Amino acid sequence: MSHSKTLSPLTDEKLKAAFGEMSHPRDFRPFVPKELASASLNTSRRVRTDEVMETDLIRETHDLWGSMMTEPYKGITLDGTVNSANRKLIENESPRVAMETAAVALLDVMRHEIAEKVCFKWDAPEWRRWHNMPLQWLRDGIGLEEMNEPERLATHALIRASISEAGYQHLLELMEVNRFSGELIGRPAYLNEHSYSISIYGKPGDKIWGWQIFGHHLCLSCRLIGDMYTLSPTFLAAEPTVVDTGAMAGINAFIETEEAALELLRNLTPDVRREAVILESILNADVPEGRRHWADSLHLGGAFQDNRVIPYEGVCVSTFGAEDKARLMTLFETFFLLLPEGPKKARLAEIETHLDETWLCWMGGYDDWSPFYFRLHSPVVLAELDHHQAVFLTNAEPARFHVHTITRIPEGGDYGMDLIDQL
Predict the structure, then answer these.
(1) Domain ranges for the chain
(2) Secondary structure string (H, E, C) spanning 343-373
(3) pLDDT surpassing 90 at residue 3
(4) Model pTM greater than 0.85?
């Protein structure tokens, strides 16, 4: 919701206690730490990784994720059994030529010692080792902060050639948010616009090849399989969602998705909405034990969840009216801003084909202030948005100025895995 909107008053006591200092639902300023972080915390990702690996929580998480990597890839399923959606390997106007030209240019400019850390076989298991934490414990690829300027420029050229122009501008905004966040808390060496690792899988020009970038609040897996383009999984996030100073002041990340979701839910009939909303509040005291994870909060499709069992919850879209379904497709479109025009058109058509098999699950309120989570889930898509509590700010409750979004292709479709055998 835009800042100029007339807001309903905060009347709920829990919401007033959590957000009473805020001037609008995305006002992060009351929760900026009063003092900057100590100089000892303003270190690079590499240094900080070495430090935190001595803590029990991070070591245990690292070991857990490592064990998940040993499981053969299956994909997200409803019950542990893959129910193929019979997706077809089709030409979807992929930007193959532009991508390959940019990838070759990147490899040409790259120093040898950098290139050997960036390049992997097309089917290397490292595809599945992305994560959204600002750490480098898995040395897959190389950090943009470790590159020289020509290498960074060429990396950006590859990303730009692979996604829509609006999507690329969105990524630049998220990178700026990361830099802004580091500045807010006094840790610019740790959080900045270069805090991401890049990898290339396969040889550009081969039938199957792709690239991956991951780091704090930005993770993309882009792959070409024949003439078909895939971008899944994607993880995009921001804390805070708003940038209010500097050259890029005015950033208001994910506002379109949030507004489209609220527009959808508020217009459902009361009976349908009651089915969709399975939890009326996501404030900490109201979330049942076991629902919230320390890193992922309420979302289910995060890092290392390639084989997760996720049953449908909420309400089936088959009960929606025509206008509700149109609003749902508008919401879906906001999740796929990064896709080039051809792949985007094909992806949305695929989702619409399975619209009556899609489920909407909502947790939280849908007024002007309440944080919320929702999930859209069908045989061909998993899309989530979640409001989180603080990691680098200080809000104890989830708030609309800390957003995580995820898209995946269930039933074996992430990384285009279900398409490879069709070549």
Answers:
(1) 39-73+95-244, 253-416
(2) HHHHHHHHHHHCHHHCEEEEEECCCCCCCEE
(3) no
(4) yes
